[in-house]
Amino acid sequence: MGTFNNKVVWITGASSGIGEALVKAFAAEGAKLVLSARRADELERVKKAAGLNDSNSLILPLDLAGTSAVNKHTEQVISAFGRIDILINNGGISQRALTKDTSLETDRQIMEVNFFGTVALTKSVLPHMLKQQSGHIVAMSSIAGKFGFYLRSAYSASKHALHGFFESLRMEIYKDNVHVLIVCPGKIKTNISVNAVTGSGNRFNKMDESTEKGLSAEECAAQILNAIKTNKEEVLIGGKELKAVWMKRFFPNLFSKMIRKQKPE
Hints:
It is a single chain. The protein contains nine helices and nine strands. The protein is of the alpha/beta class. The protein has a single domain (about 10-260), classed as 3-Layer(aba) Sandwich (Rossmann fold), CATH 3.40.50. The longest helix has 29 residues, at about 105-130. It is globular and about 50 Å long.
């Protein structure tokens, strides 16, 4: 058992990738897990793989593209466990299409899932954390939330939006003992590119070469847990690609010249 023993942790996007790795990491520390994603069968698989049972976990299918029932979902969690200690907004979709080839409908779809879905769930959980005067809210951004990149215009915009929202929220609730962590992964070995949408909204269905060589989801999850434990406000996770964030901040002109030479993928 660890720091998160008996803590109630709600994770979206829990059916694969970083979300699945987070479920297993928190389960190993004795946390009580709420697993959300669209695919209930995959959530059941993750639950079993993490060694969870009906007394310490709840499967709660959720589609971030439609949040009309989000308050009902939150009440289900409160009814099951009495509180919510940590909310990890990990669910989302990526993009692989040029701006000129991406329909406005697809732009809206990405913003709806990555930004508005995350905001809706956070606003639903927030009153309970304020009432209990404790809690931790985690927003899964990306290094694409720090700068734009090829084929990611709407995706990058949605992640930039998360920074503005959660940095503002952090200041507003700091005195209420509710913490906000923004996570910015770089290249993590998951199916993010496979599940990304094209300009028409269809599934991309290809693995990026750089993603295939990325940091493991398990190592990413371990760093996220450590960031929560140490009350970090932001954490960047990945490999050498993270240097681009530093370069963008201190040498913006050089960054622009170098990033244009990167392989679009």
